[in-house]
């Protein structure tokens, strides 16, 4: 928390329903500022969008980094409009740039069962589902190291290396253990596959064990990724903080939110815990061209992302208040959007959250 509690934010709506859900989230943020006595200094950003690409031939201005690196956080909508710009250009020209240049090495995805949202696991769940997936976001299996040999012959051989550095491994594990240490259950689960991947994964396990020594209060266990994926479905209540390498974390961070219902409510953070650079918060969903422009998108994913952003900025009371208001509004059928079987539109759903905030 900074002393005068003024935070500079870049609001980057992007494309499609990003343009609808981001303003909804901003309105919720505005309502919390008054209540909790901090101020957000929000700059609206029109780049990192396919519209910008159409006009300028690039996703972002050349000096984008200089413009954004001093911000306290970035609130992102969605990017992509495949009819006009291929996804690899829009994605690599925006989100991937942020992740790399701002060294957002943590990808954080909360997974929580919410009222009014039908989970495909509804009949299986005994107890709460409330955990977080922590994914390593910069190295691991998604490396550029490898190559093809004997191309086009019977001996064709393809190599793709996994890169685990001690710095990269330890910093994600430290973040995950810190997070677990600050949560009531203080439990961490590590995703591994050291019975099959004989070099990199035993190293990962070793570093988990070493890091665990610094956190005697945190209980921890490890699962092989195949079993872990099964456990997400069979017994999701057992988890608190789940940490995985880039690939394993990627898989789990889609599987987790899928277990709890709709893509419309899931949020995500791309975080630099050391705060050298701004972290980015966004809904998990994409630009959803099929429903864009109709005002019917579910804004809860963006609102939840805004709550994560406040938490990151140190405004945890306001962040928690937003989540309580989200739960209150989701409990009422009238404020649910169509993807949740309701009739509310995007703005109406955000209004309900704001009403719940003001009533609390
Ligand atoms: P990405 O390009 O990010 O991988 P995508 O384009 O494949 O994602 P989305 O844009 O997330 O997928 O949309 C997938 C489906 O979910 C679409 O049918 C879309 O309408 C629906 N959907 C996504 N987000 C929302 C939302 N906030 N509210 C309602 N429906 C949504
Ligand atoms: Mg898409």
From TrEMBL:
Catalytic activity from the UniProt record: (2R,3R)-tartrate + NAD(+) = 2-hydroxy-3-oxosuccinate + NADH + H(+); (R)-malate + NAD(+) = pyruvate + CO2 + NADH; (2R,3R)-tartrate + H(+) = (R)-glycerate + CO2; tartrate + NAD(+) = 2-hydroxy-3-oxosuccinate + NADH + H(+)
Domain Isopropylmalate dehydrogenase-like: 8-353
Coiled coil: none
InterPro entries: ICDH/IPMDH, IsoCit/isopropylmalate_DH_CS, IsoPropMal-DH-like_dom, TTC_DH
Documented EC number(s): 1.1.1.83, 1.1.1.93, 4.1.1.73
Entry cofactors: K(+); Mg(2+); Mn(2+)
Example of a GO MF term: tartrate dehydrogenase activity
Pfam annotation, one family: Iso_dh
Pathway listed: Carbohydrate acid metabolism; tartrate degradation; D-glycerate from L-tartrate: step 1/1; Carbohydrate acid metabolism; tartrate degradation; 2-hydroxy-3-oxosuccinate from meso-tartrate: step 1/1; Carbohydrate acid metabolism; tartrate degradation; 2-hydroxy-3-oxosuccinate from L-tartrate: step 1/1
Alphabetical UniProt keywords: Manganese, Metal-binding, NAD, Oxidoreductase
Role summary: Has multiple catalytic activities. Apart from catalyzing the oxidation of (+)-tartrate to oxaloglycolate, also converts meso-tartrate to D-glycerate and catalyzes the oxidative decarboxylation of D-malate to pyruvate.
Family, similarity comment: Belongs to the isocitrate and isopropylmalate dehydrogenases family.
Protein name: D-malate dehydrogenase [decarboxylating]
Protein's organism: Rhizosaccharibacter radicis
């Amino acid at each position: 928390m900074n002393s005068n509690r003024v935070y500079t934010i870049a609001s980057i709506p992007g494309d499609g329903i990003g343009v609808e859900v981001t303003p909804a989230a901003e309105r919720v943020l505005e309502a919390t500022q008054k209540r909790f006595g901090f101020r957000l200094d929000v700059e609206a950003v029109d780049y990192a969008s396919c519209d910008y690409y159409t006009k300028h031939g690039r996703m972002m201005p050349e000096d984008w980094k200089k413009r954004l690196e001093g911000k306290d956080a970035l609130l992102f909508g969605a990017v992509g409009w495949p009819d006009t710009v291929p996804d690899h250009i829009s994605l690599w020209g925006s989100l991937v740039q942020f992740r790399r240049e701002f060294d957002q090495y943590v990808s954080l995805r909360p997974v929580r069962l919410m009222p009014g949202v039908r989970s495909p696991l509804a009949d299986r769940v005994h107890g709460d589902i409330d955990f977080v997936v922590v994914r390593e976001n910069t190295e691991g299996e998604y490396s550029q190291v490898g190559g093809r040999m004997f191309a086009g012959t019977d001996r064709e051989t393809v190599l793709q290396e996994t890169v685990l550095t001690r710095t990269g491994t330890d910093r994600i594990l430290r973040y995950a253990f810190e997070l677990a240490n600050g949560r009531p259950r203080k439990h961490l689960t590590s995703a591994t596959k050291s019975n099959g991947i004989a070099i990199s994964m035993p190293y990962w396990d070793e570093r988990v064990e070493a890091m665990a020594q610094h956190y005697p209060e945190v209980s921890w266990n490890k699962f092989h990724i195949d079993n872990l994926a099964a456990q997400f479905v069979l017994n999701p209540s057992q988890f608190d903080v789940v940490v995985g390498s880039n690939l394993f974390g990627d898989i789990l961070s889609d599987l987790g939110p899928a277990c709890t219902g709709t893509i419309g409510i899931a949020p995500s953070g791309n975080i630099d815990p050391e705060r050298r650079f701004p972290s980015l918060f966004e809904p998990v969903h994409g630009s959803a061209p099929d429903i864009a422009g109709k005002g019917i998108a579910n804004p809860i994913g963006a609102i939840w992302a805004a709550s994560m952003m406040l938490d990151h900025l140190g405004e945890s009371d306001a962040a928690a208040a937003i989540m309580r208001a989200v739960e209150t509004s989701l409990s009422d059928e009238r404020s649910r959007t169509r993807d949740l079987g309701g009739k509310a539109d995007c703005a109406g759903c955000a209004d309900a959250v704001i009403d719940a905030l003001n009533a609390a």
